[in-house]
Every structure is written in structure tokens, then in C-alpha cells.
Write a structure and sequence with these properties.
The complex is a heterodimer of chains A (about 260) and B (about 180). With about 260 residues, chain A is mainly α. Chain A contains eight helices and no strands. Chain B is about 80% helix and about 0% strand. Chain B starts with a helix and ends with a helix. Chain B folds into two domains: about 30 residues; about 140 residues. In chain B, helix 5 packs antiparallel against helix 6, helix 5 runs parallel beside helix 7 and helix 6 runs antiparallel to helix 7. By secondary structure, chain B is mainly alpha-helical. At the A-B interface, helix 4, helix 5, helix 6 and helix 8 of A face helix 1, helix 2, helix 5 and helix 6 of B.
Chain lengths: ~260, ~180
């Protein structure tokens, strides 16, 4: 891919990402879901503002200007906080109907965040390739750690929902899928960046932008009012599969035979 | 390089975990999980697991050995067949446990209940794994005790489930009255 194509694609993402953020936020408001997803709305509006400010600064002041050098880590910090808030939102919606699990869920959420941060920070200091001497070097490693930690939190929340057989609204499943893919993708890209060096920078920016764009597009298109409706099922244990009935009948026969033999 | 492999391993596991977790949640959403309180109450006392604990009772083998025409091959065959039967019982016990757990665990409105249900979930699956391991290794002498412990956990969950679903209508009535 030549430099012109690369710049054109990058310019497209620079414009498309904040537009999609705003579109999703507007869609939330139009569907009447903004009150149920306030933290998601904050993430989208905050993300759009940060992105637009970053693009403007990059073009007006330049990538090596003092202003941009300071803006970037601060914007990343805010962006990471907003990402965590989205996970908090997912958690709130997940346990909304299950008051008894809220405290346990909170423990899982914060414990997973603590453990993930500890493991990632531990790996950071054990890694001989890590450059902690310069601010960009430190921040690149920090970015990787943040996305790994967010991935771990997504997995912990997902595991929590699976273990407790919670039935989340479809919109929450969409958030799990969209942000799960985004965090895993970002963690992979940052891990590769860490090992492939500065030559990977151009590709990293493009891949990260494309990933962000796809996830935002997925969320904007699939979020719906209908996705909030709860599933009602009258079939107990039907999720276990059709074999259960066969096994139960066969066991009943054996049980009867054994009861006759043992005379219980 | 070790860190790179660690990161790649974590990411592969993360992708697999995300895929499996989402698939599981979609599956539960599609098929449903909740049993109605009445159905749950009916399901509780329906099956006797008494014979399960006696499948590897030594007296059966002693009786067989005392019979004419006894051959050592018979003992092996008996154990294999009983192991297959035990496996069926275990599947049924697990299905029943899951059914009660699905219905009862998220209904609990106190965190104490949720924590207790989670504890029983872990204990049940730990005992289940131990029992399976004993069967796999041919350590049938432990089966009786293992089965007893497993059924005790199932009974405790059944009791809790009954309590939970019993409290649910009362709470709903109170809320409606208010």
C-alpha cells in the first residue's frame, strides 16, 4: 500500500470514528435507551470529543509539538477510564434483575481488575524489552497493560454471567461482543507493537482505527429497543439438550431394576 | 520472547473465552433457564438415588464369588457395567443439580444466598470431579462416600431452591400490596 492510499484511509477513519460515536449516542437517545446506558453515552460523547481534539491538534500543531505530546497520554488516560466505565455499565445492566448477585458481582469485577493489573504490571517489570526510561516508551507499555486488564475484566464478567446462568438483554450481549473484540484486538496490536518496534507504528494506527470503526459500526447498527426485552421461557432445563430425556428414561428403567434387586 | 508467548497465549485464551462465553449466553437466551416455582417443586423429590451408592457394594461381589461357575472375568465385567450405570446416574444428578441451580441461584435476593449457591456450585463440581477420577482410576471403594457427599450437596441446593422460590411469591405479593 503506498503512502497516499494509507493517508486517505487514515483520514477516512479520523472522520468516521467520531461520526460513528455521535451516531451511536444519538441512536441511544432516539431509542430512549440513554437513561439506561448513561455511561455508554458518556463513553461515546467523550470518545468523539477526544478523537476530534486529537485530530485537530495533530493537524494544527503537529505530531511532535509539545501540546500534542502532552495531550496524547492524557487523552489515553481518559479514554481508558471511559472504557472501564462502559464495563461498569455492562455489569450494572447484567445484574439489574438479580439483586442478590450484585455484591458478589462487584467482588468479581474489582478482584478481576486487581488481579489483571497485578499480572500485567508483573510481566512488565520481568520483560527485558520494556522501555520504562522514556515517557512514550512507558506509555506504550502502559497502553498494552490497560487493554490486557480490560480484556481480563470482560472475560471475568462473561464468566460470571455464564456461571450464574444470567440472561442479559441482547444489547448487553452486543456490548460484550463489541468491546470484547475491541479490547482483545487492541491488546494484540499493542503486544505486537511492543515486539515489532517503531516500524509497525503505521500499520498499528491503521489496524487500531479499523478495529475501532468496525466495533462502533457493529454497535450502532445492532443496538435496538427490542434488544432490551427479557426472554421468558417456560421450559425448565431445556437448555441441557435433548439427550437429558433419553438418559432420564434409561436411568429410570435401571433404577427400577436395581430397586428390585436391592429391595430398598 | 517468553513474555511474547505469554501474551499470545493469553490472547488466544481470551478469544476462545469470549467466543465460548458469548455462545453460552446466546444459547441460554434462546432456550431459557428459568423453571417456574411450581415445576421446580414438582421436580425435587421425584427420583431415588439410593441404588447409586450401592453399585460397588462388596457384598455383591462376595455373593457372586460364592456361586458355582464363578470366574474372575465376571468381577471385571460387573464393575464395567456398574461403572456405566454409575455414569448414567451421575449425568442425571448433574442435570438435576443444574436445573435447580439455574432456577434458584439468580432468584436469591440476598447476597448471602447468592454466595451460598456459588459455594455449593463449586463444591458440587469438585466432588463430581473427584468421583469421576475415582471411577476412572478404579478406586471403587470411595464411591459410596463420594456419592453420599454429592447427594448431600444436591439436597442442600434443593432445600435452598425451595426456600428461594417459596419466598419469591410472598415478596411479590408484599410488593403488589404496597
Amino acid at each position: 500500500m503506498n503512502a497516499v492510499d494509507f493517508n486517505q484511509i487514515q483520514s477516512f477513519f479520523w472522520v468516521a470514528i467520531p461520526v460513528l460515536c455521535v451516531l451511536w449516542a444519538v441512536r441511544l437517545w432516539r431509542l430512549g435507551l440513554a437513561a439506561q446506558y448513561p455511561l455508554l453515552a458518556a463513553f461515546l460523547i467523550g470518545g468523539a470529543l477526544l478523537h476530534m481534539s486529537g485530530v485537530l491538534l495533530y493537524h494544527l500543531a503537529g505530531a511532535h509539538s509539545q501540546l500534542y505530546v502532552w495531550f496524547w497520554p492524557i487523552s489515553q488516560l481518559i479514554s481508558s477510564t471511559l472504557s472501564f466505565l462502559v464495563l461498569l455499565q455492562v455489569f450494572q445492566r447484567l445484574v439489574e434483575s438479580y439483586a442478590g448477585l450484585r455484591k458478589l458481582g462487584q467482588m468479581v469485577l474489582y478482584a478481576s481488575l486487581g488481579v489483571a493489573s497485578a499480572i500485567v504490571l508483573g510481566s512488565l517489570f520481568l520483560d527485558p524489552n520494556t522501555d520504562l526510561q522514556t515517557l512514550p516508551g512507558f506509555w506504550i507499555v502502559q497502553e498494552r497493560s490497560v487493554y490486557f486488564a480490560l480484556t481480563a475484566v470482560v472475560l471475568a464478567l462473561l464468566g460470571f454471567a455464564v456461571v450464574f446462568h444470567l440472561i442479559p438483554p441482547r444489547n448487553v450481549l452486543i456490548l460484550f461482543a463489541v468491546f470484547g473484540i475491541f479490547f482483545i484486538g487492541q491488546a494484540s496490536v499493542w503486544a505486537l507493537r511492543d515486539f515489532l518496534g517503531w516500524n509497525f507504528r503505521g500499520s498499528r494506527v491503521l489496524i487500531s482505527s479499523a478495529l475501532y470503526f468496525v466495533c462502533l459500526l457493529g454497535g450502532t447498527v445492532t443496538f435496538s429497543r427490542l434488544g432490551e426485552s427479557e426472554v421468558h421461557s417456560a421450559q425448565p432445563g431445556s437448555a441441557s439438550g435433548g439427550n437429558e430425556g433419553k438418559v432420564a428414561r434409561r436411568l429410570e428403567e435401571i433404577n427400577q431394576a436395581l430397586l428390585n434387586v436391592f429391595r430398598i | 520472547m517468553t513474555t511474547l508467548w505469554f501474551l499470545i497465549g493469553f490472547l488466544v485464551l481470551a478469544v476462545a473465552g469470549l467466543g465460548l462465553g458469548l455462545w453460552q449466553l446466546v444459547r441460554v437466551r434462546r432456550h431459557g433457564r428459568r423453571a417456574a416455582p411450581a415445576e421446580l417443586a414438582e421436580a425435587a423429590p421425584r427420583r431415588s438415588y439410593g441404588p447409586m451408592a450401592r453399585l460397588f457394594d462388596g457384598r455383591d461381589l462376595e455373593f457372586l464369588q460364592s456361586q458355582r461357575g464363578w470366574r474372575p472375568m465376571m468381577a471385571t465385567r460387573l464393575r464395567l457395567e456398574r461403572r456405566a450405570v454409575l455414569s448414567l446416574y451421575l449425568r442425571q444428578v448433574r442435570a438435576e443439580f443444574r436445573q435447580h441451580y439455574r432456577a434458584a441461584a439468580p432468584r436469591g435476593e440476598s447476597s448471602e444466598f447468592a454466595a451460598a449457591a456459588a459455594r455449593q456450585f463449586l463444591v458440587f463440581y469438585a466432588l463430581y470431579a473427584v468421583l469421576r477420577a475415582h471411577c476412572f482410576l478404579g478406586l471403587f471403594v470411595f464411591v459410596r462416600t463420594d456419592v453420599g457427599s454429592l447427594l448431600a450437596v444436591l439436597r442442600r441446593l434443593q432445600e435452598r431452591a425451595q426456600q428461594a422460590v417459596g419466598q419469591q411469591p410472598a415478596r411479590s405479593r408484599a410488593a403488589t400490596a404496597r
